[in-house]
Design a protein that fits this description.
52% helix, 22 helices, alpha/beta, four-stranded parallel sheet, 410 residues
């Protein structure tokens, strides 16, 4: 290993040394629960990285495959008695090893040529939305008959609403996120409706890019930094009180990952202003005073891993649902168990992701609700797939802010 990459690995040594190899992570790791492989649990991955640092193991593509085989759910970090920053270690290790081994041409093309090129990315998916009925089947045998989620015919960025800023309330900047923009624009519309209902002034910059977590999780630090820098420039154009997102993963990435990976003073400043939409509402408004007149639809809530485990946000979305006229919250068993998506994990390890999510399906079914709410678009895609595969397609899936917006009287 060259001195450059060796020094990068050495940066992780102090954090790795905190791991006592106690095995507490085994009891909470959804992947280890399925495979029982030591390399699939945090303790095993840390041992592999430690061996690479000490020169006992070459950081090759086989090692990278072992490190990549992770949902990045954060359960190990939350339950670690020594507070080892496992997510930071694994994400940095992925970028270090990928820099050493080199990214494949396919990954470079996808991440640097498409994802981090926001204009081309938007254009490509706009045309895909128009033509997908011609070449994408509802169930593709190559993808284990996984239903392909349909792109919105009109992404949110193509139909930006005219915002009348009053300044009677706080001023926020709104980060949309790729999945909401291209698959779930109704979440963005509901977010804006709910914010304007409370006289919030909204700064909504055009040409927003991805938060960067797909690139980082696949080891591409170059594409990640491009996206971070692009978005930082956009949001530097105006002053605002808070940066709000309605995507759990975007919130987690901007608030926790941008500062530790990019180490840019602007990203650190922006992260301190970043709030999840549920958290923003419960902190700034009295949302307990809506009148309840309509018959109540029963809703159960799934806690996204990035929101509850990494950001400790779980009471807030429930308050949003409980404050919504016409809805009643019914808790399922183990609402914070991982659904199995884990970003790209759900694509590359589809069968395992379905096995991990099987418990979630059973818990949703037993809750007996007609609606499932969650604050993560990726979880929405995964759970919809799980429900469809188990003859539960009648269960509707909504973001809490959609439920809240629907309860606002026109």
């Amino acid at each position: 290993m060259s001195e450059l990459y060796f020094n990068k690995f050495k940066e992780l040594e102090e954090q790795i040394s905190l791991c006592a190899r106690c095995g507490m992570c085994q009891s909470v790791c959804p992947l280890y629960n399925q495979t029982s492989r030591e390399s699939d649990v945090a303790r095993g991955k840390i041992a592999i990285i430690d061996s690479a640092i000490k020169g006992n193991l070459s950081p090759n593509k086989s090692v990278l495959t072992l490190i990549n085989n992770c949902l990045l759910c954060g359960a190990c970090a939350v339950n670690c008695p020594n507070k080892v920053s496992t997510l930071e270690i694994f994400l940095k290790a992925r970028t270090y090893i990928s820099s050493y081994t080199g990214l494949s041409l396919i990954k470079k093309g996808m991440l640097r040529g498409i994802l981090s090129n926001y204009a081309f990315f938007d254009l490509l998916l706009e045309w895909t939305a128009k033509l997908e009925h011609l070449f994408i089947k509802s169930q593709n045998p190559i993808l284990y008959n996984r239903p392909f989620p349909k792109l919105s015919k009109t992404p949110f960025h193509k139909a930006l609403p005219l915002l009348k800023n009053t300044r009677r309330g706080p001023k926020i900047a709104l980060f949309i996120g790729c999945l909401i923009d291209k698959f779930f624009p109704e979440i963005a519309y509901s977010t804006i409706k709910s914010l304007t209902h409370h006289d919030v002034s909204i700064f909504l910059p055009k040409n927003q890019g991805c938060c960067g977590i797909p690139a980082l999780s696949l080891g591409d630090i170059t594409a990640f930094n491009r996206l971070v820098n692009h978005n930082l420039k956009l949001f530097a154009e105006e002053d605002f009180d808070f940066l709000i997102t309605s995507c759990a993963t975007c919130t987690f990435t901007i608030k926790k990952i941008w500062p530790i990976i990019s180490k840019d003073s602007n990203s650190i400043k922006l992260s301190s202003k970043t709030l999840d939409i549920n958290e923003f509402f419960t902190l700034n408004f009295n949302i307990d005073n809506l009148s309840y007149k309509r018959d109540k639809i029963k809703v159960t809530y799934h806690d996204p891993c990035h929101l509850k485990k990494s950001l400790k946000i779980f009471k807030e979305p429930r308050k949003i649902i409980e404050a919504s006229d016409g809805y009643k919250l019914v808790e399922m068993q183990e609402p914070d168990s991982c659904c199995g998506q884990g970003g790209s994990f759900g694509l590359t390890q589809y069968v395992l992701s379905q096995k991990i999510g099987s418990k979630k399906v059973q818990n949703i079914k037993e809750a007996g609700c007609s609606t499932l709410a969650t604050s993560c678009p990726a979880c929405m895609i995964q759970i919809k797939n799980l429900l469809n595969n188990n003859n539960l397609s009648h269960i509707d899936i909504k973001h809490p802010i959609e439920i809240y917006a629907n309860s606002i009287q026109k």
